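REQUEST ID: PR-0412
SUBMITTED BY: lab tech R.K.
PRIORITY: routine
TASK: structure prediction, single protein chain
INPUT:
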Amino acid sequence: MTPERFADPRLDLPADFVQKASQFSAILLEWNTIHNLSGATTEKEVEAQVYDSVYPLSFLEPFSDVLDIGSGAGFPAIPLACARPDSAFTLVEPTKKRVAFLNYVVIKLGLKNVTIHDKRIEEMPEHIYSLITSKAVMSADRLFGLTKEMMDDSSRMLLYKGRNTEEETTTLPHLKIIDAEHSRYLLINK
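STATUS: complete
OUTPUT:
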């Protein structure tokens, strides 16, 4: 990991963030050779995904607890959990090999603020979260429909999306689209 890339003061990252992100990158690349967890095959590609994961800290209001849906290879939840050790993270992932990977990462990085559920989002008990995140799991409309009961008036949903998202945003309430050089984010309030 390139420390300079994460030096933006708006991100307000802890001193050990780059070390933990580097460790996460090494673990992911090692597991990826056997389990095909992510399309990233180089440290530079993982670094780009880590940066994409934490970039929203430059515009998000503080949050106390996060629900990450379809956590997969750990993006955005693992980098965010490293960046915000005082926030609680609930990761929902139904695929066994990805759950095994996430559990391994949490142990190796010493992330005491992460809980992993081997379930689909539809199986999770209702609980109000201050932030709900997801990257490339399903359409924004469908995801909002499945989680709106897990949000109150102060909750936000942050979806990590590609450039072509206009068709997903027609019926979402209080939507803000944030275009960054490297990605597009959909920020939704209930």
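NOTES: The mean pLDDT is 92.
REVIEWED BY: pending
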